Amino acid sequence: MHIMALTQPCPRGWLNELDQSSRGYTQAEFWKSLARTCERGLLDAVFIADIMGIYDSYKGSWQPAVQHGVQAPHDDATLVAATMAAVTDKLCFGVTWNTSLQSPYNTARTFTSLDHLTNGRIGWNIVTGYVKNVEDNGMGQLLSHDERYAQADEFMDVVYKLWEHSWEDDAVVRDRVRRMHADPSKVHEIHHKGKYYSVKGPHMCEPSRQRTPVLLQAGGSPRGLAFGGKHAEALFTINPTPEKAAESVRKARQAAVAAGRDPSDVKVLAGVCLIVGRTTAEADEKYRAAREAISLDAAFTLFGGWTGVDLSAYDPDDLIETIKSDGMQAVIKNFTYVDPGRAWRVRDFGEWLKGGTLAPDIVGSVKEVADELERWMRVAGVDGFMVQPYTTPGSHEDLVNLVIPELQARGLFRTEYEGDTFRERLTGADPRLPQRHPAKRLAIGSGRT
Amino acid sequence: MHIMALTQPCPRGWLNELDQSSRGYTQAEFWKSLARTCERGLLDAVFIADIMGIYDSYKGSWQPAVQHGVQAPHDDATLVAATMAAVTDKLCFGVTWNTSLQSPYNTARTFTSLDHLTNGRIGWNIVTGYVKNVEDNGMGQLLSHDERYAQADEFMDVVYKLWEHSWEDDAVVRDRVRRMHADPSKVHEIHHKGKYYSVKGPHMCEPSRQRTPVLLQAGGSPRGLAFGGKHAEALFTINPTPEKAAESVRKARQAAVAAGRDPSDVKVLAGVCLIVGRTTAEADEKYRAAREAISLDAAFTLFGGWTGVDLSAYDPDDLIETIKSDGMQAVIKNFTYVDPGRAWRVRDFGEWLKGGTLAPDIVGSVKEVADELERWMRVAGVDGFMVQPYTTPGSHEDLVNLVIPELQARGLFRTEYEGDTFRERLTGADPRLPQRHPAKRLAIGSGRT
Fold first, then answer.
1. pLDDT band for position B447 (50/70/90)?
2. pLDDT tier at A321 (50, 70, 90 boundaries)?
3. Set of chain B residues whose Cβ sits within 8 Å of the Cβ of A206
4. pTM here?
5. Residue A69 region by backbone torsions, left for phi larger than 0, else alpha for psi between -120 and 50, else beta
6. Label partner for B360 (CA 20 to 30 A): which of A40, A196, A302, B310?
7. Which among B72, B101, B297 has CB closest to A204?
8. What are the boundaries of each domain within chain B?
9. Which residues, including other chains, have CB under 8 Å from residue B315's CB and lie 6 or more apart?
10. A34 — alpha (psi -120 to 50), left (phi > 0) or beta?
């Protein structure tokens, strides 16, 4: 079972009295403490969400996001990863980075540097931009949803060429006698010329332990799923029930096969929120406090950011069928699946979103939560979980202090770290991408120097 | 006296047997060790050089840079800074970041994040891009030298507006009762519309301890000096003698005054290489070994990167007067100043450059080196030194273990850290920019929310 702990360099859950993220996210000690907790729990990785821009669909303004502390203000995820990595040895890091807003040449350097500094403990959560106001802030032009994925596909080609095909493994020789630090005949230009990018190379960096970081992705749309099936080594899905998650797992494995990969080349992790008590009553009390800290405005702000739909145009008691938006249909379908007979209203969305995520809550005693995770593994066939926090600290401490020991006692979770790199931990195989991954099948341009 | 230690995430001095940078620069432990050494020595800061692209003027190719390990391969400076910061409390960091290759909106977030995570220990070494091949790698179009500075000037306006004028100090209220994380009426759009940039804002990040990082700069051209006089809080100069450095100091102070600032608002640090022994003989032996590790090809590669001049078109014995290039004249003037009667040849450049820097060598016993630093302070009127390494580890350990105690014994260097932030350490005043700095005098657009 693979378990990653989600976090984000912004206030998150700040309305809950137990949460310290609103002050903590700007402080190194907050991140170092979280890193040590997750490493103590032998978690696979910390997954660091990131976003560029401030959500501004709800009420047509960025003000609700700022007022309610909805992923705003927000710091940089790569620097948080470097901070956490500096005080850990085994814990891995999934770092969010946006193909729509960055150049592939620079991106390749950033992730090679991270993989160097962590000795292979880095993954990349591949996202494409979707906050409108990045355009107003001079961060490039956003494309349509499908074209964004076409652009991202080409972006991947470029970084793969730089990571996998530019420097040979034995290029760096450090030969003082011949005065040769690296052999230029083993360093290759990539000569990429495509629709969106033109990059000559070579890569600025020598190969890191993993070369290509572990590739992570969350997109759930048909185009996003095809992208994930082709590129991703781990996919994150949000589903209300394990039965529904089983569909996501099946689709992900199909998408991998369609891209010429093995079905198991894509691990699927289910997003969940765990509310754990030493007793059921303690868990219920925690859950009650967590639910009290839900703000409808915060939820609608987030929802607007995701879908472009401004729910301020509706009454909280409106039935959701009255909301006409293509962007919302997938969410609505997923959302109502859990209770299709119910008359879902706008306010139900807000409560479901909890100001942060659509991931289902698993509430109970240690035993009950472990039972439920076991059921998810069995029914959904997922490879593990992406645990989303209600509060930091709090949620991940409960995971590590309460849930992990129970999973270990049941023989479901590791009792020591295996593998040094993120890819070894995830796949049990090599630190490098397998030969059947599309990155390996690319050819670089004719201009081998 | 202010002392900063220069380093760079690449092989540097690798031909010297004592140097470990070629393997070390990719490893967190190498950086953590250097950070601890510099903090133990109470240095003001580590200054992390950076470059995007691979030097390619010499022989018209990037191959010499790769072969000789001349700032290639090269990792990312911001991530190295975060790594070093995570294991120190007081040491500060000057991080190189290029206005030609980045967007101001993203830049503002990167440095606010670094300043958050270090609690105010961050400076920004402002550079403009100059390696031709970044264009071939899709990193934008390079402008002419003077236009680059015009662009950089506007870039500074944008980041100043984001850092200094977007979020008021008391914008973040974290009021659970009113469900208000931040008061949007105290968060302002900046509405910047200029020749190069259009950025609406607001800043994505809440203010950090220093708001604007300490502004560092090294440009020596007339346009560069005007830029530095306007923006920089510390300027780095490379001069062969303290008498020549006195000119740089005078010009820097004049440039500050011309920009409406106090002469002492710009600290001037002289670049030096220290080769220190317990005895003069030990120092001489170290120096001999260091000189042996000099490669003419490496020096010419570096020189080509700086000036665009391909010295492979010349014989090493050619007189430098025969080289016609505007870009080289300033360097030649500076270079020959130390011994104007000598017939300087092309190979002399290479030896002077030592594969890494034009900074003068100060070679001797602890006492002799300390005497010479005292003379530089007195004759040049500099505020301190930027110490450049021959080897890592080695040079900075000698600085901390041998030179610093001698300077302390003479009452010339601090015996404990004063001030928590970089700006307090440098100026003795506030963590924030003084009111007379141009950043403070900017007005944001009319659209206060």
1. very low
2. confident
3. 26, 73
4. 0.96
5. left
6. B310
7. B72
8. 2-290+358-441, 295-355
9. B346
10. alpha
